[in-house]
Structures are given as structure tokens and as C-alpha cells.
Amino acid sequence: MFDLDHTLVRTPLDLAAMAVDMQALIERERGPLPARTGRWRVGELIDWCRTEAPRLEDALWAVALGHERRAMDAAVLEPGARDAVLGARRLGLATALWTNNARAITLPALERLGLAGLLDPVVTRDDMRALKPDPDGWRVIAAHFGGRAGDAGIARRAVVVGDSWVDGLAAAAAGVPFVAYRADRATLARRRVSPVAHLDELGHLPAWLAARGDGG
Q: Which residue of 54, 67, 157, 177 lies most exposed, with the fewest beta carbons within 10 A?
């Protein structure tokens, strides 16, 4: 299971800037948000809105979609991305996408970059009850392959590949091993994310999978 932004594709998507714009929208309508340590994150703002100001939720998602669309218009394949996906498939593995992005911008980007036929299922925020780091996307993926999210056997046979602590926490909550791609190790440690491997080159993933035994 691959993450999208900064894993399979390189984009200028800035989630911190997206959250700033979302927070500004909320505060224009509702006044200052509760004081807190650290910045508000996108998922936290959505959760707050659903509870406290549900009429603003569509407007928040419109802000997110605008940021995502601009980023995906500039997206290019991450070096080694195609080799990683094709290599995993040559080992007999299914390959899926698990992203917090919207389906409306994800599918055209996959088509343009030549990945659409190599990832099944493609799970976006439109398919999930909650964004990563919530593990709900794993429920959708496991069901696609005839399993259940709580099945430890199927979880152990899967792998999440991503660049962020958000991917790592989602994988951990699902009971799935996490492979960190060019992730900041200090941030992972602070968030108590323990990858089973660190990759600096995405094209090295098939060799790691083969050594792990997933190809057998």
C-alpha cells in the first residue's frame, strides 16, 4: 500500500499552508479557535468542524481541494516510483494506493503519470470514514481483498510505504508493517513510529520485499 504525495509522486503540496487557510476560514465565520500547543492540522480542523460547525465542512473541503489540485497539476513521478510498483507486482504482490487526497484529483494524476493501471484499489478520502493517521483506509483495502481490518494474518502480509509519521501511525493502528521512505527519523521517533525499514531510494523496495519473503 503506497502513500501518494512525496512517496509515489513529488508535488509542492503544503499541508501546513492548507491548514492555515482552513483555520482562517473557520475563524472568519466563528471567531478564534481554542488555544492549543502546536498548530492545528488538517484532520483536526475537519474533526472540530464536524462537531462544532458542520455547515462549514463543505467549505473546508473546498479549500483542501484547491490546494490539492494546484499541487497535482505540478506533480511528477518520484524517482524509482514506477520501478517500486512494478517490482512489487513482479513478486506476485497486489499494489494499492492509500491517500488522504480527493478521488477527483487523484485519478487524473495517476492516469497522467502512468500509474492508474498499476494500483488496485485506489483508496482516497472519499472512500474512508476518517483521514490518516486513522486506519480506516485499511478497512477498505482489506475488504477489497476479501479480508477484515481486524485480521492479524492479512495485516502481517501487507506493507504500508510512506514518507510521513501520519502514514506510520495509520499503519501501526492497522497492525501493518511500515516502510519509511525518506522520512524524517527524528519526527518518527517523536511520534513513536517504528518502521520495519527505512528507504532512501524507492526503487530498492522490491529487493527489500523479496528479502523479507513477501515474494514467496
A: 54
Q: What is the pLDDT of residue 56?
A: 97
Residue 210 burial (10 A CB sphere; 0-12, 13-18, 19+): middle
Cβ–Cβ under 8 Å, residues 96 and 120 = yes
- Domain borders along the chain are 15-73, 76-212
State mean pLDDT over 184-198.
97
Burial of 118 (0-12, 13-18, 19+ CB in 10 A): middle
pLDDT in tens, 130-160: 999 999 999 999 999 999 988 988 998 999 9
Cα separation of 158 and 84, whole Å? 15
Per DSSP (E only), the strands in the chain are 9-10, 76-77, 97-98, 122-123, 160-162, 178-181, 197-199
